[in-house]
Amino acid sequence: MSADPLPPHSSSTVEVLVVPGAVVRRYDADPTVTDAVGATGADAVLPAPPHANLAAQRLLHAVDQPVLRVDRGMRARTTATADGDLVVAAAPSPDTLPPTPAVTGTAEGTTPDRVVVVTDEFELQVVPRRQETVLDGVDDYLDGLPEAWHPDATCDGPAPRVTHASTSVQAGYTSTYQPPGDNGGTDRVSPAGDADGSRTHEVDVLGLGSTAGMGAATDNSTSRLVHATLYPTGHVTTTTLDPEDFGLRAVEQVGRARASSLRSSGVTDVAQLQEMSVDALAAALGTGQTTARTIATSADALATDSVVRTSAASLPEDPVFVDIETDGLGASVAWLVGVLNGGTDSESYYPFRQQSLADPAAHLDAFATWLQGIPRSRPLVAWNGYNFDFDILTEQFREHCPDRLEEWESRRTFDLLYWARNKNNAVLPGRSNRLEAVAQALGWEGHTDGVDGATAARAYTRWREAATGAAPGEDRWEPDWDRLEAYCEDDVRALATVYEAIDDAPVQSAAGGSGVTGGRQGSLSDFS
Amino acid sequence: MPDPTPPEDDDRSASPEDTAADPATDGGSDTTAVPAGARQTVLSDEALEASFPDYQGQIVESRRLPPEPAETVPAADVLRAPLADELSYDLFTHQADALDRLDSGDNVVTTTSTSSGKTWVYALQAARNHVDDDQATALCLYPMKALSRDQEQELNTKLREDWGLDVSIGVYDGDTPSDRKRRIREECNLVITNPAGLNEYLPRHARDSGWVRFYKNLELVVVDEAHEYAGVTGTHVAWILRRLRRVADHYDAHPQFSMTTATIGNPAAHARRLTGLEFSVVDEDGSPRGQRDVVLWEPPVDWDQVSGHQPDDDRDAPDRDRDQLSDFEDARRSTGSEAAKVTAHLGVNDIQTLQFCSARQGTEIATKQIANAAGSHSLGGGVDAKAYHAGLGKRTRRGVENMLKAGQVDAVASTNALELGIDIGSVDATVTSGYPGTKQSFWQQVGRAGRGDSDALSVMVGSTDAMDAYILDNPEYLFSGSVEDAVVSVDNASVYADHVLAAAADFPLTDDDAEFLGGHDRLAGTVGMWQDAGALESASQLDSLGGVVYTGDPRPQSRISMYGTGDTEYVVVCEHGEIDHDPVAPGRAHRDYHEGALFLHAGQQYEVVDVVRDSTVPRIHVEETSTGLYTQTLSQKSIGNLQPQEHQSLGNGVSLYFGQGTVDVTYNEYIVRDINTGELVEGPLPTGSPPMTLHTDLLWVSLPPDHVETTIDRLDEPLLEPTDRAGRDPLVPEGEKRYTYGGGIHAAEHGVIQLAPLELLIDNNDIGGLSMPEHHDERIPGPVWFVHDGIDGGIGFTRSIYEHFETILRRTREHIAECDCEQRRGCPLCVMSEDCGNQNDPLDRATGRLILDDVIAAFEGSD
Ligand SMILES: [Zn+2]
Ligand SMILES: [Zn+2]
For an interface test with B, which of A329, A460, A462 has the most B Cβ atoms less than 10 Å from its Cβ? Predict the structure, then answer.
């Protein structure tokens, strides 16, 4: 597996939607999962524990895409990229695999670059008393594979790399595993990218499910969907999705009980809901006009992929859009500050990026200097800025550029998400509060596929690590900075797209002043 | 990289300060036994015989604690001018002492009596800091939200009103509205919260200029009621406080700690284990107290009512379809109703009384019992009784507190919620219904009567278990000797691992953190584990610039439960009703909350109707019921993979070990019995509980291979006849000799576990045991008995029993020999245990005594 955390540019991919049985138990295969399949463009669905068999049974009837079930079956089910570079094969048992990895190709005579074998036979566990992480069951699983699939198998001609993925391991987890016997090793794992690549018998391991046994590291309290993008290089990106953002439940004020009432009156998806009048809705649900109107408004936004303004409040004029990149959620650094001066059609994108480890202040200083040219009346706009970007920038100024702090703190800031959702000024389309999801629903398209905040953080951390150990003047690893800066540009342009869409949307006078106070806004609340 | 952290092992040896600690501040070795005639009039024999219904001489001991005058120091001797001028009183000597030590830079733990004004110490320290620097901040941690509100009021009164300081004080917890929270972060000098809250709030410092201000100026951390932090909760608190020190250090702040605790045997060691810092101890109480009478009350036992009670000939197998335990419950007049009678008696005599109830009894039931008892009291008259427990609404609780203060209620039946420093003014008397399990807790309850120098009266009504029986037989235990040690351990690997993650989410981990997070090797090992698991960034290392970043699911600290070690806990849900029940750890759930289990909670009986195990949050569904039945769970247990860590060879082939191992338990069956008769109604029935494996701490006593023979040879009594279970249950030894010996070693095991809390602040529900004439481990040559922590990873309980083993053995030996039951197979007052998975079969006091004698002799030989 490549040491570069960034996946290749414009590569073909397989999009998999991981569906734990707990999700279909609490929600419906149709429309919750089918809606999520549509929204993610999934090529296949993968039933995962707990209750993978339940998910498999329900999904077989509900979706057109292949159901990669591994709980039972006589043969492996596969799905592949159009070019055949990547094949994903779900094997209920080892003997259901094709005889060799090479013959999994989609067309006669082609050999894929990589085959991802999906199983549920091993799981990841931390063992604190031994200070070890183990892949429980992986040795038995590998031993049970047909000869040609063994990690140390040799073959004539081109051989694909094989990744072993488990639905019993948290999606997004990657590592290389050294089976015992090679050098008397144990079932310990080492994180992906650590290996020097010279050893031949390492096994690429991937998680495509949910997991327990990981202490406080994983959140098992909610059942979630996972959208995984698999690359022929072995890269994987994952996005966690809340089932409540799909199907009828995506509509504000529609919870379990109302979704069920709607279904029994024949309304099964958002499009049908949107066609109902407010009166009909109020009658069907036995609610007041206010609630029915809120539901109708939200359904309208979702069904037509448009913004509905629910108050007369207007957005501030002449925004400057801001987004930062950090080293993770803990955010001990803001190594890139991207600003877009003007709207979606503006050419003025400026990435202020930390250039050297020795100088954590220069890019902040440059950003502050640039801001001096921007009139104070113009708001700095960020998405979820009150919980992230603005606070983190303040602390970065305090720590590294204290002489610019006062100046920074005097700037006018504006959190677009907070204004729309928490202050109930607009109902937004999109399947979650994520900026990309909202912007995509409004027609925005990103240009840097395969990069997300987590990958960018990882790239920075790896650079910081490489730079720490390097002697002066020595060549050291650098990420593709242009691509990371372009990713940040994508985000500020997405932000501008949403801003303009809200600005352009007519104020819906009938919606009245009733607040939209759905339970989902809880996710934005102040946890401190 | 040098490791500046002293090994935590150092904590285990008692420090010189601890041995100097004088618990007499509360209990006092200076008590005098009071003859019946000299008891306070209301409890004199004449008064009781005249008016107490059916008085049979239940009082087994009366002690009088003499009054103590106040010892004071002028405030100006301790405090500088502006503050000293504001104080209109002198300070008690212990307050002055604590302030002097704080002034010299020490961390201070104050361990004086309940109403000795410990709050003054940290309030004055915070005030002094504020006078020197008006930006200075302080963090106050209280164990309960209810206490936080009380203390906010008290601190506001002192600092702002009485001393005229412009200090802003705020309670910051789950009940604080978010705009108020923002203001507190930005402005407050003194923030009040609890450790569970702090766990959640710590990471926020990185994004909030209010918190940055607060931590930068943090000069004082107050940990109040620190004895509350023991067991698993204590382990969590210990790591949360280390994380707090790490965050403060990040901002170059090095706050002093001011800790208060109820009297415990090891204040310095406990404070050090909780914080990782050295403390100086203040324990010379300078506050005044009035004369105090403490009376021990033993409910009568009607031995004739115990079925099959044949003191002279009980070697025959008892009828195992009857439950010996329930016979005793019956034979001894119920502790709860007896306590209610005492409370009623005091009430009709115009003595305002606080009755502390056991969890089983329930405060609502107690209030009814008190009212009824008052009705049938020969002096007649009504007693107005109210209930008080944490499950009541805030307004209700506040109402009862105010009625107590205003003297508007005659009696209040409370859970231990009122043990802590909630302000209720003073009552005239306390009645303790069943020994609360610890001296510390007992004296805390007693301290609720008679604040200041007014006279006070306290009665303890014994209940049916070994601890109570021991205390009624040996009252000296309560009045002399040291108070129990608080037990807290930072060794549990799962709890540690979770707090390492939380610390990484506070801010990235580096080598500098070894000082706070368990030393370099432990930190590096656990960081490596989490990197391998993908929860910490593996591209960087502890010695990298920037450190190791957290990469798991957001907010790991919010998934840490203060009551567990990382296992998913069960939530208790009541169908068609409400139940205020803490989450249940898996071990406890499998044993006591399987489908069909009946249990009492706050006086209400519940039945478990469904257990959902495969859900992300497992749930126990219960229903209110009232059946006249109860259930007992049976278990299969085995112990293996022993890894001895410490070993004492005691001579005569007897060895004592401490180490780790695995305990496999299956709570596979349960039986249903009639509450009144103890008759078997149904069962054994399957529980549906899955098998469970604990990797935990154990101690074991290994005896010589011929010990069965040599012991039986010395036995003066006839051999016991095995019950018919002996053939069916593989854990019950077959054959009369082995059966009888098995009963002896089983009795010794039970006795030690039941009496360990006499020395240590531990909950023996979280300890288990196993004994057998032989064990498959080849290093164990003969009979063996085990004691183990019932919580995965261990919580230090067994470790502390190991360290106090000889003392506990002697108490057990004495108690087994002296029990009034005179039954070979024992009774609940000596060796029978409610928690025995083996139906208390076999048990033999006679053989148990011989075995304990041999181990004690081996100890003596090795000294
Ligand atoms: Zn007895
Ligand atoms: Zn037992």
Answer: A329
The tens-digit pLDDT sequence of chain A (528 residues) is 346 888 888 789 999 999 998 889 888 888 889 999 998 999 999 999 888 999 999 999 899 999 999 988 888 899 999 999 999 999 998 889 988 898 887 777 788 999 999 999 999 999 999 999 999 999 999 999 998 898 877 767 778 999 999 999 998 899 999 888 644 444 556 655 444 444 457 899 999 997 777 888 888 777 889 999 999 999 999 988 999 889 888 898 898 889 888 988 888 888 899 999 999 999 989 999 889 998 998 898 888 899 999 888 999 999 999 999 998 877 789 999 999 998 999 999 999 999 988 899 999 999 999 999 999 999 999 999 998 899 999 999 999 999 999 999 999 999 999 999 889 899 998 888 899 999 999 999 988 778 988 899 999 998 988 887 777 777 788 999 999 999 999 999 999 999 999 999 988 654 443 333 332 232 333 333
Helix (H) or strand (E) holding B805: helix B805-818
- If you measure from the C-alpha of residue B564 to the centroid of ligand 2, how many angstroms do you get, rounded to a whole number? 25
CA distance B338 to B209: 58
Is the complex ipTM more than 0.90? Answer: no
CATH of B72-282, one of 3.40.50.300, 3.10.20.30, 3.40.50.150, 1.10.3370.10: 3.40.50.300
- Write the residue in B185, B526, B554 that is nearest to A329 by C-beta: B554
- Chain B residues in contact with A328 (beta carbon < 8 A): 537, 549-551
Residues of B whose CB is below 8 A from A330: 203, 206, 504-508, 549-550
Mutate to test the interface with B, among A326, A461, A463, A478 (most CBs of B within 10 A): A461
Instruction: Output the CA B769–ligand 1 centroid distance in Å.
Output: 19
Alpha carbon of B845 to ligand 1 centroid (Å): 8
Q: Which of B207, B496, B545 sits opposite A357 (nearest CB)?
A: B545
Q: Which of residues 636-675 of B touch A (CB under 8 A)?
A: 660
Question: Using the beta-carbon criterion (under 8 Å), do B566 and A395 form an inter-chain contact?
Answer: no
Using CA atoms, how far apart are residues A527 and A292, in angstroms rounded to an integer?
A: 31
* Distance from C-alpha of A304 to C-alpha of B671, rounded to nearest angstrom: 62
Chain A to chain B Cβ contacts (< 8 Å): 180
**CATH class for the domain made up of B39-67+289-306+324-486:** alpha beta
For the full predicted model, state whether its pTM sits above 0.80. Answer: yes
Smallest CA–CA distance from B204 into chain A, residue: A528
Pairing of strands B680-686, B760-761: unpaired
Ligand closest to the CA atom of residue B748 = 2
What ranges do the domains of chain B cover?
39-67+289-306+324-486, 72-282, 493-559, 571-626, 632-862
CATH of residue A382's domain is 3.30.420.10
Query: Which CA distances in Å does B50 have to B44, B55, B345?
Result: 10, 9, 11
Burial B127-150 (b: 16+ CB within 10 A, else e): bbbbbeeeebbbbbbbbbbbbbbb
Cβ <8 Å between B532 and A458: no
Cα–Cα distance for residue pair B84/B183, rounded to 1 Å? 31
Question: Token pair of A105, please?
Answer: 């190709």
The single residue listed with the structure tokens 């001393």 is B163
Nearest C-alpha neighbor of B272 from the set B74, B69, B488, B77: B488
Q: How far is B716 from chain A (nearest CA, A)?
A: 48
Distance CA B142, CA B123 (A): 14
B566–A216: do the CB atoms touch at under 8 Å?
yes
CA distance B195 to chain A (A): 14
Query: Measured at the alpha carbon of residue B395, what is the angle toward residues B392 and B398, in degrees to the nearest 5?
Result: 90
Same domain, A371 and A472: yes
